[in-house]
Structure formats: C-alpha cells, structure tokens
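--- STAGE predict ---
source: upstream dedup step, 1 unique chain passed
mode: sequence only
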Amino acid sequence: MNATPLTSILINLLKTGLAGGLIAIIAWSVGVFDLDGDVQESHADIFDLRFSARANPVEEFANTLKQLGHPEPRTYAINNNRIYFSVRHTDDSPRQVLNAYQQRFAANGLNDRVYSTIDAEEGEARMITGLTGGIVPHSVDAEHVTMGGIITRSQARNAEELRRDYLESPSPSSLFRGHRWIEAFRSPEHNQTTVIASWSDESFVYSRMLPEKLRVGYGAGADHMIPSCPGCVRINRLEDLTDESSFIFESNIYVTNHSPAQIVDFYDKAMTSRGWEALPQNKAFYELQTNVDFEGRHVDIHAFTREDRLTKLVIYSDEGSTYVHTSMQPNTSLN
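--- STAGE serialize ---
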C-alpha cells in the first residue's frame, strides 16, 4: 500500500477514532474518580485488580501485532507526536478478528482477560484495563469492530497506580501518554476484512491534537523550503518518517484571517524567490476557474517544483477564515 492512501486513512482515523477515544476515556476517568481523587464506592472493588509487570507496553503491542500477521508499520509524526500505523487484510469477519486479537492480547499479558463484548457486567473491569495499557472493545457490530486503550504518564498497570497518576495530573489530557487503536471493518460487497492498527509511543502529548490548543501553543512555525504565510497559525503538521534516511512526505495546515487572494499572491512571490518553479497547470486551472462553474472552483490549487521535490498548495475560505494546506513529496516525474 502506498503512502498517499495511508496518509488519508491516518488523518481520518485521527479525526474520528483518536479524538473520540480521548473524550470517551476522559469520561471514563471522571466516572471512576471523585473530584478529590477518591474512588467512588461502586468502583472500589476494581482496585484489587493487578496486572503482571510489562517491560515495555509499546514494544509488546507492536510485537503482538506482528504475531497476528501485521506488516511492519509506517511511522508518522503528527504535531511532533510519533504514531505508528499498520494495515492488514484477512478472510476472518470483524467479530472473528476481535476474538483472535483479544485472545492474543490476553496470552501476551497486555490484557488481564479476553474481552469479546461490551456487555455492562464487564464494564468496570474493561474500563480499568483500557486505562492501564490494555486493549478493549469500544464498539462491536457484525461488520465493524473497534478496540483501544491508553498508557498513562507513569504507565499505570493497575487501578491504584491509575489513581496515583490521576491525582498527579494537572488536567485530564495530561494524564495520558500513549494510545493504541484497532479498527476492523468489512463492507457487505467485500469478502475480506481490513484491520487498521494505530499506536503511539509513550511520549504522546494529547494537547497537541486539540485545535483550540494548537492555535495558541503550536505556533506558525518555520520551514526552510516552504514558508508559513504572514499572520498564519499552523494547526497541523504531518511527516512520514517511515524511512528516516530519505524524505517521503510532509504537510502543514495553516489558518489566517487574510483573504485567499492575499495568500495566493504571497505564495506566488515567496515560492519563486526560494527557487521553486510554478507548474503550467497553475495557469490552466486559473483559466478554468474563471470560465467554468463547477464544484470546488473557489479552491485555489498551486503546484511548484524545485530540484527533486514537488509541492502543492490548496487555499480556500471557510466560515470567515482562510485555510492553507501545503504538501511536499518527491517529484516522481524526474525518475
């Protein structure tokens, strides 16, 4: 599978699975702990739960995926968070995938038991397992299954350690330092199930993934090849680090109050001054925009080449703001 579909799937996964999973897990932690950190009475018996010591839960998860047939992962950096991503296909149904993965997680010590349902009677045990490095079901349907879990800032392995991490965390989002997410799905018209696995290292900073935080704390940034636009704030950066010995792909998303026309004018001049050459398609697309009415005509798309690199800029307006997507990849037309 090439980098472009993987990048698209990864971005969609982060928008849905990771963001939704974080909200759900924060809700879990609030349900387990009172505001002062005491254990709520209905959850007190869970704190007798113990898991065996794990040398490195991130490595063990990756090794377990390999045992289950996953290929070597691709590696990405999203807003300076390192994320690994692996996809496999199988003839098993999503429910069979759930059972096989859960059995392997339990056998390898990642889970304390097999969790094959989201039944209420296992809810508390499943919750604690998911918050202490295990991987538990989040949704279970005939054609779609999701599983996930969290590693806390001190890699809590049981409920008592989880309570300690909770009390020492200044905010819910700072409690978590790693995630694992698995999604298995099959369309009715296809026989095979696609299994997507995404996980981070134990240094994942969730606040970098929250838009309201990014606008304040992530800054416009500087790029030695593609400049950030004046008055723009970078809200997302993606880099493909699968082969760190060579360049593969990177992209940035900026937001600004300047108009699209002002941003287009800036990049036309700034890219040329940095040695980039505009492709002839830029002019052809502009003529098409001005003469033909079609969906998406108000989006400006510009492409540039420089040495062995190809850069594309997508500029558009939405709800009073202008968004700028920049992407850079090897120029395969030179091969």
